[in-house]
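Exercise 7. Given the encoded structure of a 452-residue chain, write a plausible sequence.
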């Protein structure tokens, strides 16, 4: 089994070997998102830009469904790999594959049947509704493809094939980037063209992952005959996966809520926030990539009772994540107007988007700490505290904060509600970590080992 990376003598080298390909995949995703936003913004149709931006929560919802089985499955697989339980590895991976397709199809069908209601819920007005409906319809129809793409990209990393996972993401993004201008402009498909290009990218990603599973993977399987697993394993997958999924779902709810509030300030405000959030992904996805890149190592070391390596890994990753978040946030605050000029021409809208972007990145180091602690809980199978954190930063805490901040500060309160929520959420995360893992309790049940 391809697990030499897990047995590396240096935890920092093992971490970077696992995390860098994830981040590279994220960087390509960033390039795709920026390129996609660039092409859409160059239609110079603010209603189209707003319509597509409003559908961002759709992608987040589908990612959430995928992460139930992708992250829930990868957490379990990392621990099974640490225990060298090959038989159950095959069963778990097969279950995740077929369950994700079924869930994607069910969600997609519901979205198609009630698509007009969903588009209204997303915050579309009379001007942006047509464009939002076009994009939404295509994404709903391709839901199984989107959901499935998060399965093997996560499970391959759990097996140690982080580079192959990266290639699958990169190749799909490249297909998307190539097709965007052709479908949006050459074929004059507008919002539909952007959605179709996105789905074609996911088709390529899924095909590549299947090829790797069939030709290189020794732990993963898509054999339908062994997709039945124990209720205990299902509980573990859904326990950890649901906390990961809820992070995505609550994020969607928060974006919808923010768009609903910003709608009072005009379509330009919604469009400006949509572009600012896409650019904000530059910092966010890099931090997410470095966070999730280490998750398989945490799960493996925990499952194999490698307590010394686990301690060293967690200490190194926390310091690295915080340093990276501070540097990237500072750069983004300084360069915000320069970056946004590539997407926005109107001076007033550019000024608004710059302020929005800065308000989003100012608390990014707190997000890094919250993510770090949440991923420790997920990787070690602690679904309870992971669930609490999933419902805090961009969930219950955010909803409470944005209502209060809007009432007290109006427009500025809406923009800084995420930063305020981060302050509260990081306090909750630190308290949970101390409660569950303080005083060395993270490894107190581990057996002593000989580490070379």
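Solution.
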């Amino acid at each position: 089994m391809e697990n030499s990376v897990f047995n590396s003598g240096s935890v920092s080298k093992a971490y970077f070997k696992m995390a860098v390909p994830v981040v590279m995949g994220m960087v390509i995703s960033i390039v795709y998102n920026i390129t996609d936003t660039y092409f859409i913004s160059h239609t110079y149709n603010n209603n189209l830009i707003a319509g597509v931006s409003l559908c961002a929560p759709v992608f987040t919802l589908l990612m959430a469904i995928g992460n139930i089985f992708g992250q829930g499955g990868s957490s379990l697989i990392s621990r099974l790999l640490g225990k060298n339980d090959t038989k159950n590895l095959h069963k778990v991976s097969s279950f995740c594959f077929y369950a994700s397709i079924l869930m994607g199809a069910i969600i997609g069908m519901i979205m198609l049947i009630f698509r007009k209601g969903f588009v209204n819920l997303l915050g579309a007005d009379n001007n942006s509704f047509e464009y939002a409906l076009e994009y939404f319809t295509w994404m709903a129809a391709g839901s199984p493809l989107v959901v499935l793409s998060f399965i093997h990209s996560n499970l391959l990393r759990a097996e140690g094939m982080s580079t192959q996972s990266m290639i699958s993401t990169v190749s799909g993004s490249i297909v998307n980037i190539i097709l965007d201008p052709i479908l949006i402009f050459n074929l004059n498909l507008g919002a539909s063209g952007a959605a179709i290009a996105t789905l074609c990218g996911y088709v390529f990603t899924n095909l590549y992952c299947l090829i790797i599973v069939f030709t290189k993977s020794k732990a993963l399987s898509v054999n339908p005959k062994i997709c039945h697993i124990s209720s205990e394993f299902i509980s573990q997958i859904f326990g950890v996966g649901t906390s990961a999924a809820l992070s995505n779902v609550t994020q969607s709810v928060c974006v919808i809520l923010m768009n609903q509030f910003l709608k009072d300030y005009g379509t330009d405000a919604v469009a400006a926030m949509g572009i600012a959030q896409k650019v904000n992904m530059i910092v966010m996805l890099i931090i997410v990539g470095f966070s999730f890149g280490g998750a398989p190592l945490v799960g493996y070391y925990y499952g194999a009772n490698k307590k010394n390596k686990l301690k060293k890994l967690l200490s190194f990753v926390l310091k690295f994540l915080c340093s990276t978040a501070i540097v990237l946030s500072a750069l983004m605050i300084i360069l915000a107007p320069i970056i946004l000029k590539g997407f926005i021409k109107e001076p007033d809208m550019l000024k608004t988007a710059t302020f929005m972007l800065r308000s989003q990145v100012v608390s990014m180091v707190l997000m890094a700490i919250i993510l770090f602690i949440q991923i420790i809980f997920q990787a070690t199978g602690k679904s309870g505290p992971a669930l609490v954190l999933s419902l805090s930063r961009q969930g219950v805490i955010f909803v409470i904060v944005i209502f209060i901040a809007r009432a007290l500060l109006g427009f500025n309160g809406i923009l800084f509600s995420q930063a305020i929520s981060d302050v509260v959420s990081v306090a909750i995360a630190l308290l949970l970590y101390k409660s569950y893992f303080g005083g060395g309790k993270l490894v107190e049940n581990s057996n002593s080992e000989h580490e070379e």
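Remark. Confidence is low (pLDDT under 50) at residues 445-452. Students should compare their own answers with the one above.
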